[in-house]
Every structure is written in structure tokens, then in C-alpha cells.
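In practice, a research group might receive sequence data for several interacting partners and want a quick structural hypothesis before committing to experiments. The following worked case mirrors that situation: the sequences arrive first, and a predicted assembly follows.
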Amino acid sequence: MTTETMEAPAVAAPTATPPHPLREFWGYFSANHGAVAGLVVIVAVVLVALLADVLAPHSPYLTDTSIALKPPFWQEGGTLAYPLGTDPIGRDILSRLIYGARLSLLIGIFVVAISILVGTVLGLVAGFFRGLTEIFIMRLMDIILTLPSLLLAIVIVAVLGPGLMNAMLAVALVILPHYVRLARAAVITETSKDYVTAARVSGAGTTRLMFKEVLPNCTAPLIVQASLGISTAILDAAALGFLGLGAQPPSPEWGTMLADAREFVLRAWWVVTFPGLAILITVLAFNLLGDGLRDALDPKLKR
Amino acid sequence: MALVEIENLSVEFPTQGGIMRAVDGVSLTLEEGEVLGVVGESGSGKSVTMLALMGLIPFPGRVRADKLAFNGRDLLTISDKDRRKLTGKDVAMIFQEPTTSLNPSFTIGFQLTETLRLHEGMDRKAAERRAVELLGQVGIPSPESRLSAYPHQLSGGMNQRVMIAMAIACNPKLLIADEPTTALDVTIQAQILDLLISLQKERNMGLVMITHNMGVVADTAQRVMVMYAGQIMEERSAADLFASPQHPYTAALLAALPERSEGGRLATIPGVVPGLYDRPKGCLFSPRCAYATEHSRSVRPDLRAWAGGHIRCHYPLGDPNRNAEIQHDHPVGTEAAS
Amino acid sequence: MLRFILTRVSLIIPTFLGITLLAFFLIRLVPGDPIETLAGERGIDPARLEELRKVYGFDQPILVQYGIYLSRVLQGDLGKSMITQEPVLSEFAALFPATIELATCAIIFALLLGLPAGIIAAIKRNSIFDHGVMGISLAGYSMPIFWWGLILILLFSVQFDLTPVSGRLDVLYYIEPITGFLLIDTLLSDEPEAFWSAVEHLILPTIVLGTVPLAVIARMTRSAMLEVLGEDYIRTAKAKGLSRFRIVALHALRNALIPVVTVIGLQIGVLFTGAILTETIFSWPGVGKWLIDAIFRRDYPVLQGGALLLGVVVMSVNLLVDLAYGLINPRIRHTR
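A structural hypothesis for the assembly, expressed as C-alpha cells:
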């Protein structure tokens, strides 16, 4: 029987190298056709929003009752000057949709930015200080989650008064709990890991720990949730606009456009069809992107 | 006719990074009533080999073989329906994690009688009587009252007994035990092994014991197969293998057993099993082998008959000419270490 | 099990207090005199105002005022509508069955389509059917349902003249409310044709309201099934030689339903959100439309009381779902 231990051998030259993490991420992401399609649509919407002044054939506010309710160009009576037709007071629908893209993106980004900012801070605080602070914050978030989201937003807007700004604040509050929970869960899992203990032992302060060590480690779920949050924000803000509680006429916000056009649904299909399609496509794109990001960033789903 | 005949079996899983070959050219026969130990580190393909025999390779895995037969039935061409009549009846399998291997939403009694009713066509009453009998045979106290228990209410050891009872319910010709004691307490491990061996003797069934622990097979198996990175490294009778291992890997595994350590520090095998990206060109064990040469690094050895068994090595330890051959082929291990 | 129930019930108490606290401050934040809002009267003369000030405890510390409010709420006194002078609770009770009827139909619609779609998609993973279900359900999940309702009206009511545009029942019929659920009341009445009218009126709102839950249920069922199908006990079931159907329909489904039930519970809140929009589009006389109307009429007692009641309803349904979760999950059922 041999008693010698085996000598450390030279490592054989590997036949292939594992891919770089970013490259691997892109590999997973690009394999998901839906996510890529979502990204393409979002880039397109962003471009449209940025170039609205150049792209829009007319002013979104210019009314002209002589051309009210013109159908899209392919229908009889339609003209290429108003490709998607006009609304009941003669505004060009395409131009309004183009400017609406600007509004919707601003709404989405603004709402999510506020929510992430406030939510992460609250979540980090709850996760780090535990005890009564945590109970208070998390109970409050539970209550927000218990109430139907739109109902809460409606109540808030009813109190603050209708308007785009108030609607955005209301929606930001409604989606807040997701970020608080995410940040808190991340803090609790991360702080139990060795590297945080190590940092703590070596004398790092709580604030430093929160922002320097833990936050970077929960960015992946936050990015995913942000993408999904933008879609919720756009959808809810449009719903408030539709109920007359969000952006007020003559703002070209897509939900508000629908509310304006509602009574004409029986006479002019195009005034309701296009704003809604714009909402659906944009929201779908953000959801596709969010799903794709989650799948690509979630190592659990990888083989 | 042998109970199990496997020739040149390979199992592959496509992954993002390429095709992962979990089992690579495994051949094996097993006689009726024989006890075979399959030993290897995690990821050596020992479980996958047996899952392939059971037909349990999950999608998108691919199984290929020159021959895969059980009790004379060709398993490569068998219909799903006929296969289901075999599995659970003539071939049964128990797994590493008894608690997650039982369905948490159903009672022990339901899961146990299910097999009996399906394969033996028993009615509920008869199946329950037999279930109580089986639970008693595997050493579960007050078996009647256990029928209505859920898996989470029993300990891991008890659940593994239930799994064994389920496996032997239809008197199988072959029982495959995949690391049956790994997840259990040390004190329970011996009990479960004793139970398996006594059941095997009583019923003269074939038993395949998959383990990463040489110690487990030492007292139980008649024959041992050592696997590494999806390939068979050595396969011989247990007595011969333990007395004089022929493959450096087997020798290293044995040297790592606490009961064989000769004072001082416990021997270890440096390095890890090759993964998808670092599969060597030559012998798969060569990066970790103390006797590796230029030749063994570049040419993969075939599985060949040797000393009453089989071996996949250029320089078997019992070969009288091996030192000369190693010198001739330029050893690399010593230089790297110095 | 009893302890499980008690814990769950006790957990909703802080939530309930939180909701009442929100409602309590809501009244103080809305434009106008809070006493007028609380009393549901406008232009009260000074003598009566002084009297009401005592009743609501406005001369007392804020905590006492909250205590007074809470005790009124617990006695079912949620104030009076400023417009109709009817108690908020009785208005809610009269309108709520219409909302429940719609919501129930929507969730049944979502379950009937969503569960099988999710299960089949999981079994036939990566098939065309799977991709189709996932694509359609993501679109459903992204759907602005207020627009979806208008489009369905455009298609089915305007284009094909198949379904009515609004309301619960044709004006030809008058049905004495017995249960408040028209599908039942029409059958109890002496005009059986009215039943078909009620069904016709329900079709589009049901589809509109059921779309988002349908999408969520289909996606959730699929992912729960996929997860369960990868579990060790499914491998055991296969090793027993069970048929594919039995493995999926019994061993996998029973476990996959546990998270799905939770999701359905969470969908109840989403459902009431959707009901507000759906009822507005279809002029469905339920609590959602009532609340929106209250905002535009500045009927704040209705808004306060109605929001509180809806919140309590959602909270109670969530509790029931939680308890149901305990019932189907033996790991919880058998812990004492």
C-alpha cells in the first residue's frame, strides 16, 4: 500500500476559458428574443421622445375644428398630412402621441427614481437598525401593499388635488414598498455574510457599510425591479389620467388623451385605439426588458 | 444472462458554454444478487450513470450507448409504457435526500400504497396491510400509526427507511441506492447500511451502492467500480481493490481514508475534478496524478482488462515495468512540485 | 393549526389600525372644514357647528379624536354622504354585490383559462404553446385595461353588435334585489329572460377585469409547476413508474398550487383596483364607480368611508387566503 501523498501537479492548460461575466450576461440576455425586442422598442421610444420637436409634423396643442375627427390616412377621408387622424378638436394624433412619449418616459423615470431613492434608504435603515424602526417601516409598507394600489393613488390624488405632479407622487408612494422590501432583504442576507462581518471587524462604520459594501450587492435586483417599476408607473399614471385625476387636458399624456376621446369611441375608432396601443407597447417593452434582465441576472435559473 | 448490461454508455447535457459530458464510455455488467459499489467524487458521473439505467435523465440530457439492457430487456428501444412497468417494480432506486425525495403534500401511507396499487394491482385495504408489513420490515416502530404521517413529521433516517420500504415494495431484482446515507447522522448511517445489506441477502436482489466514501463499500460490496470525471478508472473485486489498488486514483482515495492513515497528517488529493472548461486532453486524472508523464498528458488511456478487472491507466501500480515506462515517457509531476 | 389561525388574525390588527389612521387623517387633509366633511353637511350654522365640534371631540387632544373616530367605525358609523345624506355603510352595502359579482366572474374566468394554460405551458416547456402563453400573458399583464375595455366595446358592441355597452341589465327589466347578485336574482324572479340579459352585460366587463389576473395566474402556475417538476420527489415519482399524467396532475399540481393560491389572494387587491376602472368604463353600478363619482362630487365622507371599507375587504380576503394556504399545506396544518 502506498503511503506517499500525491505531489501537486502542474495544472494542465485549459482547453476553453469560461466567459467574462458581462459577456456571459449579454449571452443570456441576447438569447432572450423578447428582452432584446423590449430593449429595441425602449430605445426607439427614447429617441422619439428626445427628437419630438423634429419628428412631430404638427404642434400637439394646435386645434383646428375644420379638420376635427379626420380618420387615418389609409381610410377614406384621411390624408397623409395627419397620418393617424385628428382628435375631436382637430389636433394631430401622431404629434400628440410623439409628445406623449416624452411625458410617459418622464413619468416612469421620475416615479421610479423617487421610489428607489426613498425606498432604498428606508430599506437599508430597516435592515441595519432592526428593532422598532424596522417594525414601524415594514408595517407601514405592509399597509400600503394591502390596499389596492390604484385605490390608494386615487385617494391621495383626491386629497392633494388632480394633476400630473400629484399623480406621480401618488404612484411613487404606491410602488415604494417593493424597493423597501428588496433593499431590506438584501441588507439582511448580505450582513449575515462573512465579508460584512470582516468589514465590521476592521472598523467600518454603519453608514460606510450600508453604502459601500451592501448597496452594490443589491443592485441587480434593484435594476430588475426598476425596469418593472417604470412599466407600473406608466400604466398607473395613465390610469389616473384616464380617470381625470392625472395630467390635465390639453396635456398630450396618453391616458388623458384616452379620457378626452372616450365619448367618441362609437364614431371614431382611431382616437381611442392609438393612445392605448402606445401605452400597451411601451409598458410591454419595459416588462420584457425587466423579465430579460431578471433571467440574465438570476444565477438560480442558469444551468 | 447478466441482470444489467451496459456497453459504452455516455450521457451529455447541452449548456450555454458547450456540451457537458457527464458520463463518458461507461461499460458494466451486474449479475443477479450481486452487490456493486460505485465510488467517486461529486460530479464523477456515478449517479448519472444509474439515472440513465432508470431512464430518469432529465431533459435536455442525451443518453447514448451501444447496449443498455436490464434482465434481457433492451432499454434503448423500450416503449415508455413498458419502461414504466419495469421502473419501480423490477428496478427501484433510493436517493440521497430522503426528506425532499418524499412528496411533502401526501402521507407516507399514500406514497407507499401508490406503488403497490399500481404495480401489484392491490386494492386499498390489501395495499395498506402490505404497507404496514413493509414499514415493519425496514424497522419503523408502530408502523400502523405512521401511515397517516407526513414526511416532515419524521426524521431523515425514518424517511430513508420509508424510501427503502417503497423501493422494495414490489420485490425488485435490482435496487440502486444513490448515496443513501450521506445526508444522515453518522449513527444512523450504519443502521441504514445494515438494513440495506440484510434486505439484499434476504431477497437476493442486485444492489448498486453509489457513494463517495470508500469506507461505505469496504464492508458491503463484492465488486467496486471507481469513477472519475464521467469515466471508469478501475473496476475489480472489492477484496483485490482494497488489498492492492491498481489505479493511482484508487490508491489516493484509499490513502485518504482515516482508518488507513498511518500517523501524522491525513492524505489528500490535490486539485479538483475537471469541469466543463478544463477537461484535459490526455488522461483525465493526469493533472492531479503524481505519476503523470508527457505521454499520459497527451494520450487518453483506454479501459482495458487488468489483474482480474478493468483499468484506465497507462501505468497500473501493479505493473512490474511501470517505473521504466514512466522514466521513458518523461515524468512531469516531480518537476512541478519542486 | 389554532395557533396559526390566531397569529394570522392578530397580524391584521395593526394593519386595520393603520388603515383607520390613514382614513382619519385623510378627512383632516381634504380641502374644506373637517367638521362639515365628518357630518356630511355643507354650510352648517355656528350653533350646530359648536355642537358637532363636541360630538367629534374637536376640543380634545388628537389621540382622543382618533379614539372617537375608531369607536364610530367599529360601530359601523362611517358618516353620511354629502350628496344623498345616506349613511356611507348602507350605500356601500347596496352597491358592493355588483362589484363582488363582477369580481367573482372575473377571477373564475382567469382561473378557468389561466391554470390549464400555465400547467400545459410548463409541461411543454419551450414549445410554441409555451412561448405563445408567455407572450400573450405578458401582453395581458401590460394591458391598460381602461383601453382594453374601450377596444372590446368597439369590437363586440359597435362592430358586431353582440354585447351591450354598459350597465348590468337591460332597461326592459326591473328585478327586485334579493341577494344583490343579478345572476341569482334574475333566476329567482318571474322573468327568466332577464338572466340572459344579465349574462350578456357581464361578458365584456368580466373579460376586461379578468385579463390581468389571468395573465398573472398563467405565469405563476407555469413557474410554480416548473419549479415543482424539478423537485426530488418528482424524480421519486418517476422512479416509481407512475404515469406522466398522474405525476403532473397529482404529485406536481398539489404542490404547485400552494404558491398559486397565494398569488390569487394577492390578485384580489389588484382586482378591486381593476374594478374601479372597469366599472367606470362600463357604467357598472358598483363601489368602484361610486368612489370615482364621489371624488368628482367632492363627496369626501363617501371617499373616506368607501376607501376604508374596500381596504378592510381586501385585508379580510388576504387573511382568508392565508388561512386557505395553511389548509392546503400540510407542513403548516400539522404544526402546533
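Before designing any experiment, note the following. Chain C touches chain B through 23 residues (CB under 8 Å). Chain C has a mean pLDDT of 87.
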